[in-house]
Design goal:
Length: 637
């Protein structure tokens, strides 16, 4: 009997182990975890704001008076909120441009904001932005021009001490910096402490000693993405200041993973604000072209909005940003291929982990993969019902390296397969904004192909026609491009995610018995624990695309136990968790109103809310909480 039991057990374990097919070996250069995270940020703001704002110049000479800097209505919070509401993921501020004026009270040079009338010389623009970003759970980065037309020592060894000090200050005094920009512009004429001459630094890599700079940054802020630094960083220039990058796009440079960033100002007049620039703003439709030609080709986009002399964003820039933001949100809101059934030509080791439905499960990490020696597999995708779409998005699992060189997409129309994305031929390059009807070359983090015209079908076929190693495709999406007017209308009728109904949910974690009180619709009852940190774990019983939460602090006039810092994690199985947000609920004592936290929508069944700090005492509480999102449709296959 016992022997029989052992036999059965070993058979079971045998099949279990046989099913665990190993993942494919990584191919070529791999991104760091920081580069993966960075690529998922997609787009963020650039903010050029300094003395040039007041002189109507793009490049200051270095002799401008700090007294010019007087932004009487500057409010970092409003600016950051504008960016966030448009759907951006962060911002990078020009802490110092080529004119050498430091907009924070640096110890490295006298040419800084202490000499400005703004806040009687007590202001710090870097700090204001860093604080506002922190408050809004928004990434913050800085641009620090290596070229300094003010410094007397520029071009000599003496400047390096100054510059290194500036890097150190920015990376140690303002919290996490997600990206630091080392502009490539270098040398030339300038004020240079009064010398007013031309200075040539020779090779930037040698003069600035970027090897040392990069090493130092890795020490100070290991998660900071480094832009430029003579190719020693993590990201490099997209190649034009119009925002597009060339396609096909390889994130590889020799044996190193190097991603691209498309950069452009929203206003045609330049990077800094200029008088009467309102009529030079790029249209929302053009911003969409820029987005598809950067993010849609596998890079990130940094879009500049420049504050004016009052310190406020130009209303025309904001209007265009908002309209484009709505278009983008609308474009990405509905994936017609989500939960479609997938019939692939081959699945690696027949293991469910690599099955075709990874393409349409809305999970960016799972991927479909054939056997090692198959580089040109196909997958048929059947939608639950016919859909009309005109943008196709594909993603590779880049943690295993970039592999795909060309792909084809066909649609079943009029009883036959019609090619809607033709595979690209080697040597063909898309540059500028030649957008619609583009071919299928590289995929990488993501590629979006905008079709010549919308297609209606319920059946598609993806064929990888060329790859350097077995392809690992994580997502296949079908999207529909809205017009500016449609996007606007939808935004007005509030297409935002709705609170999910809490009926049938179960709870665990700290003081789980009282957890239902946070979801009972009554502000006068609450989840309350005796300790902090405390965890509130919600099992929604079914999967939803979760995009945020709301939190109402206790409303009985007391502050004790009000959750003031939080962490939010999501999970599909209640075991493996992914953090999606972390931050502070500020000002609760004076104003205990409902708080909202939003993040990019993700599939989840479990939500874990951790109160990491609470006011006045040991316990934590939540009077009411709502989870925002959409319930996923039934999974078919
Ligand atoms: C360039 C600079 O010279 C421009 O002024 C601007 O800052 C742009 C982002 O980078 O290289």
């Amino acid at each position: 009997m016992f022997k029989k039991y052992l036999l059965a057990l070993s058979c079971l374990m045998g099949t279990m182990f046989a099913a665990a097919e190993p993942a494919p070996k990584p191919y070529g250069p791999l991104p760091t975890e920081q580069q993966v995270k960075w690529l998922r940020m997609e787009w963020y703001a650039f903010v050029h704001f300094g003395l040039n704002t007041y002189t109507d110049r793009e490049w200051g000479y270095g002799d401008e008076s700090p007294k010019l800097f007087a932004p009487s209505k500057f409010n970092a919070d409003t600016i950051v909120r504008t960016f966030k509401e448009a759907g951006m993921s962060g911002m990078i501020y020009t802490a110092k441009h080529h004119d050498g004026f430091c907009t924070w009270p640096t110890k490295s040079t006298k040419h800084n904001i202490r000499l400005s009338p703004w806040k009687n010389g007590k202001g710090d623009v870097v700090k204001s932005f860093a604080k506002a970003c922190k408050k809004h759970n928004f990434a913050f980065g800085t641009y620090l021009s290596p070229w300094d037309r003010n410094c007397a020592e520029y071009g000599r060894p003496g400047y390096l001490k100054v510059y290194y000090k500036q890097i150190e200050e920015l990376l140690t005094k303002y919290g996490p910096i997600f990206e630091i920009w080392f502009d490539g512009a270098m040398g030339g004429d300038g004020f240079y402490g009064g010398a007013r001459e031309n200075r040539n630094i020779g090779k930037a890599d040698t003069y600035y000693n970027y090897e040392k700079v990069v090493k130092n940054i890795r020490k100070l802020q290991p998660d900071c993405i480094i832009w430029g630094a003579a190719g020693r960083g993590d990201v490099t220039w997209g190649g034009s200041e119009k925002g597009f990058v060339k396609y096909p796009l390889w994130n590889t440079n020799g044996n190193k993973w190097l991603s691209l960033e498309g950069d452009t100002p929203i206003n045609r007049r330049g990077w800094f604000w200029h008088p009467n620039q309102g009529n030079a703003v790029k249209s929302p439709e053009h911003l969409m072209e820029i987005y598809l030609s950067s993010v849609g080709r596998g890079a990130n986009l940094i879009l500049n909005l420049a504050p004016n002399r009052d310190g406020q964003l130009d209303p025309a820039d904001v209007a265009s940003l908002q309209a484009f933001g709505k278009m983008r949100t609308r474009l990405l809101a509905k994936d017609y291929a989500l939960n479609a059934s997938v019939e692939p030509s081959e699945v690696r080791g027949n293991d469910a982990r690599f099955a075709g439905n990874a393409l349409t499960d809305g999970d960016i990490e799972s991927y479909w993969c054939p056997e090692d020696n198959t580089t040109t597999p196909t997958a048929e995708i059947v939608l639950p019902k016919p859909a009309t779409f005109d943008v196709i998005r594909l993603r590779e699992q880049i943690r295993l390296g970039q592999r795909v060189e060309a792909f084809r997409v066909e649609a079943w129309v009029n009883d036959q397969w019609e090619t809607i994305v033709a595979p690209g031929n080697p040597g063909e390059v898309e540059s500028e904004f030649n957008l619609r009807g583009g071919k299928g070359h590289t995929i990488g983090n993501q590629v979006m192909r905008w079709l010549e015209a919308p297609v209606t079908t319920n059946k598609l076929r993806l064929t990888i026609t060329q790859a350097k190693a077995c392809p690992c495709i994580s997502e296949f999406s079908l999207l529909k491009m809205p017009s500016v007017e449609e996007a606007q209308k939808v935004a007005e009728t509030d297409n935002a995610d709705k609170p999910l109904k809490s009926k049938g949910w179960s709870f665990s974690g700290s003081a789980a018995d009282s957890a239902p009180l946070a979801f009972d619709g009554k502000a006068d009852t609450m989840w309350s624990t005796s300790r902090t940190p405390a965890r509130l774990v919600v099992n929604m019983q079914k999967t939803a695309m979760v995009s945020g939460i709301s939190y109402l602090p206790r409303q009985d006039g007391k502050t004790q136990g009000m959750t003031s810092r939080y962490r939010i994690e999501l999970s599909m199985d209640g075991t493996e968790w992914q953090q999606v947000a972390e931050g502070e609920f500020g000002n609760l004592r004076a104003n205990p109103i409902e708080q909202y936290v939003t993040f990019s929508p993700q599939k989840a069944r479990f939500i874990r809310f951790t109160s990491t700090a609470a006011l006045d005492g040991e316990g934590s509480s939540v009077a009411e909480m709502q989870i925002y999102g959409r319930t996923a449709k039934k999974t078919s296959k």
